[in-house]
Amino acid sequence: MNPFSKSSSTVKGHNILDSHPMKKTTINLKNTFRLVKSYVSFYHCAWLLMIILFQFSILQVLLTTRGGPSPPPTHEQYPPTHLQQEQQQQPRVIQQPDLPLDDDKIQQEQQQPQEEVVEDGNKPKDDVSHQLGSPSDHEDGDNNTKQVPLEQAIEGHQLASPSDQDDNHEQCKYGKVYAYDLPPIFNKELVINCHDLDPWKSKCPAVSNNGFGPNAAATLAGTVPQELAPSWWWTDMFSGEIIYHTRMSNYKCRTMEPESATAFYVPFYAGLAVSKYLFTNYTASERDYPCERFLEWVKKQPYWKRSNGSDHFLVLGRMTWDFRRKTDDDWGTRFLLMPLMKNMLRLTVERHRWDPLEISYPYPTGFHPRSAPEIEQWQQFAGSRNRTSLFTFVGAKRRKVKNDFRTLLLDHCRNEADACKLVDCDKTPCSDGSSTILEALLHSDFCLQPRGDSDTRKSTFDCMLSGSIPVFFWEGSFRGQHEMFLSGEPESYSVFIDRKEVRNGTSVRRVLEGFRKEDIKRMRDKVIELIPRFVYAFPSEGLGNDAKDAFDTAVEGVLQKIVQKTKLHGGTVY
User: What is the pTM of this model?
Assistant: First the structure.
């Protein structure tokens, strides 16, 4: 019997066909469902579902087979990481970006987790990480940057190739140094903007010629041997940061592979960066800002993170006291007291005597020999001088200093004019270059060295360079300072007269006249022997023939300290 006949009669029996159209549609759908249910079982539905899934699986396999395996990512798809680029033996580059990049891109390129930079609300936000972080930064061509090789950033010097440095492996008994390429704002741009480094006068002459300053050959003609005159320059006492950076470009123990480095040199010109803030009414936060900005950059570098900076070092062009401000009202910046500096080694012209992380290096003098024979020629010249004065004093009164000791020495020198040669810097331009100072020192047996604004003076090294014997009045002027470069026995090359005795009437002249001629010769011979250890060679390669100057001695001393720390901690530097 037709199933619809019963349904139809039922519908008619209930008189539904004559009701509302919506109700008729609902009744029809229910009847259709009952019909399908009576003919299709649960098993039919299960089989249908399985067939659909099986066909879908076959389709997926076919599509995958036709497309082939996915290729591995290439360097064109993903830029090389920071570490991969640093390990390649290629010349390092300094980049001069034309357009700024955002922080996210640098973070992706370095492939390192970045620590969040907390900006002081009173300081301008000036992100520097986009300018230069590593050789891998900005190499994917998505920005308009101009790459400049490191050797072009340091005037007139060529970079030694890694293969050349490998030949010197035996000479590097304490290991090798890896030199960072910092953002130019931390070094190169400070030199370019040299007019802004000093609130009173331009420092451009002082930072010229890779920190050696203007050439002094013409001024010193007749004072020094003619053939040595080109090796004389008017070098500023605070130019060490530039000199060391230049020399590092071709240092025999420099490596281009950070994984093989014993030490990491960070060429931040901290002394130049803070110099203009020291003598005017800048706030404490403004004085600290250049150094804080540098630390925000360096703490993100992978090799810094690996050792917490314990195998890193930098060169400070100024005395350590300019970087040790304890309170906001004190002098200087607090760079060396910032937490991130607690492990980093530093070279400075005057060190804190109780800080084991500091090495004091010699103030730069004006003589920059071009070869080892030039040093020997100068030593012979200084040793053979006919010295007609017992002692010399070069300096000026400090009228704002109560009981100024320099004034006492000036008066003493004037009163003993037959034995003392005086260069009064109130009348002679001592800081801007004059042959008068060198001539006076070359004609004297001794030179008086009172403390300056701090315990040490550049004049001490000018004095010794001329073959004159320094006379100290403060123990802090020689005790614990520059010991790596001078004799461990100060009495072998200098004289100490306590300033208190001089104030109480002791005559400097009488003390110096008490030395026998043989004693004076012995001390002078020692002074002249030390000259190669405190002068800085002119060529970026150094003196050659295994001869060492002040730079070689200083960097070797840093490497030796790091090796000792590594052994102390069982092969790990912390």
Answer: 0.72
Give the E-state strand segments of 134-218 in sequence order: 145-149, 177-179
Q: Give me the phi and psi of 167, to 5 degrees please.
A: -65, -20
- Please spell the DSSP secondary structure of 334-367, one letter per residue: -GGGSGGGSS-EEEESS--TT-TTEEE-PPP-SB
* In the block, residue with structure tokens 């009202």: 329
DSSP 498: -
Class of the domain covering 383-534:
alpha beta
Q: Which residues lie closer than 8 Å to 132 by C-beta, 6 or more apart?
A: 94, 95, 181, 182, 183, 184
Pairwise CA distance, residues 539 & 227, whole Å: 17
The two three-digit tokens of residue 205, written as one number: 């002459």
Average pLDDT by consecutive 10-residue portion of the chain (574 residues)?
42 42 53 55 64 69 44 32 36 33 33 34 37 33 35 42 49 94 97 93 94 95 95 96 96 95 98 92 94 97 96 97 95 96 97 95 97 96 96 91 92 96 88 85 97 92 98 96 92 97 97 97 97 92 86 96 81 54
| Whole-number Å distance between alpha carbons of 335 and 295 | 9
Instruction: Using DSSP bridges, classify how beta strands 389-395 and 358-360 pair: parallel, antiparallel or unpaired.
Output: unpaired
Question: So where are the chain's domains?
Answer: 1-28, 101-364+551-568, 383-534
Cα→Cα distances 246→108, 207, 294, 449, Å? 32, 12, 20, 30
CA distance 206 to 217: 16
CA–CA gap between residue 352 and residue 329 (Å, rounded): 21
What does the longest C-alpha to C-alpha distance in the chain come to? 150
466 closest CA partner among 378, 375, 369, 533:
378
